Automatic annotation (TrEMBL):
Principal location listed in the UniProt entry: membrane
UniProt keywords, alphabetically: Lyase, Membrane, Nucleotide-binding, Transmembrane, Transmembrane helix
Biological-process GO terms, alphabetical: intracellular signal transduction; receptor guanylyl cyclase signaling pathway
Superkingdom of origin organism: Eukaryota
An example Gene Ontology molecular-function term: guanylate cyclase activity
UniProt xrefs under InterPro entries: A/G_cyclase, A/G_cyclase_CS, CHASE_sf, Cyclic_nucleotide_synthase, Nucleotide_cyclase
UniProt name for this protein: Adenylyl cyclase
CDD domains reported for this sequence: CHD
Residues spanning the membrane: 21-43, 313-334
The organism of origin for this protein: Tieghemostelium lacteum
GO CC terms, sorted: plasma membrane
Length: 647
């Protein structure tokens, strides 16, 4: 299933572009679109946040200015009281001069009154001295004579520079319409605030009641009142802060009644603002302005023109630039990924080739840049294998057939090397060389030698099955253990890892002087492993060029293993050799006529087993010596071709 999907993705959708690549390209495009979209959203939200901050700033400034004007109005009303107290009595001329020079702001719709406290019993005297006491009738919307009450606060003076009242306000009693606020101011001696509607303009006003008490008797003597038009106040603030109609301003009482709005609207309650469809997508600012004991809510709503002026093409430009950068970056990464994959493939193939040619530790050192010259291994075990009868086999078969047989054999040997953790060194012709114990982390010489013997027995057990159909082919194995030198030998090209030394030469001699289908080992190998391995009871003594006589042994199997054994084959081979010896007169000293391995010719005497000890243990019956001295007689060569055919 996975292979099918992989092949499908590898198939070309268009010329040079596979389905997988096109899918990746499509994913990158979608990713780029998503990045552009979220970038646009991010900067749009950032712009909206800036607009909201601007609205909050304007709203706070509006609240600040309104609060400042209200405070000024309160201060002026309080100053009017102070003037009365300072002068010791009411003087209309002084009041006119004072108020004319202390306006809250230019063109402001403001009105100031001075109301005197009149008891019920003193009403008639007051009306005789001044004017009748009148009040505003809300139902008929006009002034009339004030009905009987406990007390009255008729206006004896008012300052209406801009004629807001449009009528004579002398005798006007505000306590009739604002009784509770007047009572609170009298009882608490605090300034109170009320809202009212102008009689003629229908404009909402703020009314400030400033109580006046006699300092000597501490009795209430009247009010100084200030009226401030909310519409004119907000209009003035808008002129100061908002240059056009880009922001809508609403002023509401704490009962959610709208007391100011732009003329184009006709709202009466707070929910009308929030239910309006035109305001659903607009930004709003809401805050509370506290005027003494009253609270007014100030709501600012932006317009589309205001928000549009604050916006720019930055989100679009940034998203486009981001998309271009993302696409270029992705294409660059794709290109770099292709190059990196190509480089990694080359490096992997190179490392794989190096690991095939060189041992793992040597190849790792070369990969890390270390110089590997040579290393000495004192616990090594050396293995040689040669195919007996291969020369005659190659002469009667085609080169292709010969190569196929070698590949089959050597592949089997490579698999067995991996199985037993044996290091393959090289092949030369039909010869195969391997070692164990080259690594400094490997075990002692006995452990490495036993590992090599297990490998050799496994070879003799499995290799014949690989080419049993090839008549006349059998392998010859030689093993020795001891110190070796290993390293990479190279000139300007083709580095070659090799192992050399006395132990290598002796192992080669063990192979070249051995019998086909048998494992020929040195006396040192025998002494290290005889407790666990089965050897033939009688050793052989062979003549080695440069060494003299050496005692050798034939490995037949493992002692604890009741399975594979070479003993029966070895005894049968010895019997055949004895029968041939009875028929011929072997030539003496003909062992030197047997050609050795063509791969190693120089033997150093530094790491040989003692010849003296070997001479002390001479075999009683050397049956192989006549075989090594066979002449070139035709009959003997035909029978013994398996022994010296590759020589």
């Amino acid at each position: 299933m996975k292979k099918t999907v992989y092949n499908f993705l590898k198939s070309d959708l268009v010329d040079g572009f596979s389905i997988g690549f096109c899918a990746l390209l499509g994913s990158l495009i979608v990713l780029g679109i998503c990045i552009c979209f979220f970038t646009f959203i991010h900067y749009t939200q950032e712009e909206n946040e800036n607009i909201r901050q601007d609205l909050d700033r304007i709203g706070k400034q509006v609240i600040h200015l309104l609060d400042m004007f209200v405070v000024n109005m309160i201060l002026k009303s309080t100053s009017l009281r102070s003037l009365l107290i300072t002068t010791g009595g009411f003087n209309k001329k002084s009041f006119d001069i004072f108020l004319a020079n202390t306006e809250v702001m230019e063109n402001e719709e403001s009105l100031f009154l001075f109301s005197k406290y009149v008891n019920h019993t003193d009403r008639s005297n007051f009306e005789k001295e001044y004017f009748p006491i009148i009040c505003w009738d809300v139902d008929i919307r006009e002034f009339r004579v004030c009905p009987e009450k406990n007390f009255y606060t008729p206006a004896i003076y008012y300052f209406d520079k801009y004629q807001i009242g449009k009528t004579n306000l002398y005798g006007f009693d505000p306590s009739f319409n604002f009784y509770q606020s007047v009572v609170n101011a009298m009882e608490l001696n605090e300034i109170t605030v009320e809202t009212t509607i102008s009689t003629y303009t229908n404009e909402q006003f703020l009314v400030f009641f400033v109580p006046i008490f006699n300092e000597t008797s501490n009795t209430f003597i009247g009010f100084s009142l200030g009226l401030l038009g909310i519409q004119s106040l907000v209009t003035k603030v808008k002129e100061e802060l908002i240059t056009d109609e880009s922001i809508n301003v609403f002023v509401l009482t704490n009962q959610s009644d709208i007391i100011y709005e732009d003329p184009k609207f006709n709202f009466t309650k707070r929910h009308h603002i929030f239910d309006n469809d035109a305001f659903q997508e607009r930004m709003m600012f809401s805050s509370v302005l506290k005027v003494r004991d009253k609270e007014m809510e100030i709501i600012l709503v932006t317009t589309f023109e205001f928000e549009n002026e604050q916006k720019s093409f930055l989100p679009t430009i940034v998203s486009i630039v981001c998309a271009i950068i993302v696409c270029l970056s992705l294409f660059y990464l794709i290109d770099q990924k292709k190059k990196r994959n190509m480089i990694n493939q080359i490096i992997t193939e190179k490392n794989h080739l190096i690991h095939k040619i060189l041992p793992e530790e040597i190849s790792n050192k070369l990969e890390s840049g270390e110089d590997v010259i040579a290393e000495r291994s004192n616990n090594a075990s050396v293995f040689f294998l040669d195919i007996a009868g291969f020369t005659r086999f190659s002469s009667i078969h085609t080169p292709e057939q010969v190569i196929q047989v070698l590949i089959k054999i050597f592949n089997s040997l490579d698999l067995l090397c991996s199985k037993h953790n044996i290091e393959k060194i090289k092949t030369i012709g039909d010869a195969y060389m391997a070692t164990s114990g080259l690594s400094p982390n490997s075990g002692d010489i006995k452990e490495n030698t036993e590992k090599m013997l297990d490998f050799a027995l496994d070879v003799l057990q499995n290799i014949p099955n690989e080419f049993s159909f090839h008549l006349g082919l059998r392998v010859r194995v030689g093993i020795h253990c001891g110190p070796v030198i290993s390293g990479v030998i190279s000139g300007y090209s083709k580095p070659h890892f090799d192992v050399w030394g006395d132990s290598v030469n002796i192992a080669s001699r063990m192979e070249s002087t051995g019998l086909p289908g048998q494992i020929h080992v040195s006396d040192r190998v025998y002494r290290l492993t005889k407790e666990n391995y089965d050897y033939y009871e009688e050793p052989d003594t062979i003549q080695v060029k440069g060494k003299g006589k050496m005692k050798t042994w034939y490995l037949l199997g493992k002692l604890e293993n009741n399975g594979f054994s070479l003993r029966e084959n070895y005894i049968q081979l010895r019997k055949e050799i004895s029968e041939q010896n009875d028929k011929v007169n072997p030539l003496k000293n003909s062992a030197s006529s047997i050609k050795g391995s063509p791969h190693y010719h120089v033997v150093s005497p530094h790491y040989l087993d003692s010849d003296t000890e070997m001479d002390k243990q001479k075999p009683k019956n050397n049956v192989l010596k006549p075989i090594l001295e066979l002449n070139a007689k035709r009959a003997i060569n035909e029978k013994m071709s398996l022994l010296d055919d590759d020589s």
